[in-house]
Specification:
It is built from 8 helices and no strands. It is an all-alpha fold.
Length: 203
């Protein structure tokens, strides 16, 4: 008697996959297919599902960049020109505590953002501010160096509690509440010597 073929993974993405994707975005703004397949082992990716996943991350990035540019332009309009080093984003900044928490709904169950995400967003704001205040924002493709800078700052060490496939069939809120080590998320960029302003150059 012939053996049955192994059951293939699902091809339909659910709201829990969307929520998990939002958490992954805090570490990776530009995940590649190989990484997505690792993060979602229960999904048998086909052209439709991988396109949907890419669309999600594209939407996340769009929101990320819109917020960064908005803040940069607000700073440029409301205060005299300042050094980019004076632009600081903290976990309790309104963009983090209100805008991002509203958009990335799983964050309502996290005490703080990952420090590297805050640092990446801060550098993005600084990069936009530097280009805008030097009147280079009218040039063709002026945002591309900023996109490249953000991509280069991706942290590919997504925590195991996110990658862990045990969240399949379980409520993501429950998984995060049980398995997140909050101390890992509480580092302030200002206190970490690894956060260098040299990353903010768009030249």
């Amino acid at each position: 008697m012939a053996q049955k073929s192994p059951v293939q993974g699902a091809t339909v993405l659910t709201v829990e996959h969307l929520r998990k994707s939002k958490l992954i975005f805090l570490w990776l703004r530009y995940p590649v297919r190989r990484e997505l397949e690792t993060f979602f082992p229960e999904i048998h990716f086909n052209s439709k599902s991988i396109e949907q996943m890419r669309k999600w991350f594209s939407n996340f990035r769009e929101f990320f960049y819109i917020q960064a540019e908005k803040i940069a332009r607000q700073i440029g309009c409301t205060v005299p020109l300042i050094s980019v080093d004076e632009i600081l984003i903290h976990t309790d900044s309104s963009v983090m505590s209100v805008d991002f928490r509203k958009f990335f709904d799983p964050l309502t169950i996290l005490e703080e953002f990952p420090a590297w995400f805050i640092a990446s967003f801060q550098c993005c704001v600084r990069a936009f501010y530097e280009v805008i205040t030097s009147d280079r924002d009218g040039q063709d493709g002026w945002k591309k160096p900023i996109y490249k800078m953000v991509a280069n700052r991706d942290d590919h060490n997504v925590p195991d509690w996110i990658v862990n496939s045990s969240c399949v069939g379980r409520n993501l809120t429950e998984i995060v509440s049980l398995e997140t080590n909050m101390s890992v998320l509480s580092v302030s960029p200002a206190d970490d010597s690894n956060f260098s302003t040299t990353y903010c150059s768009v030249m």
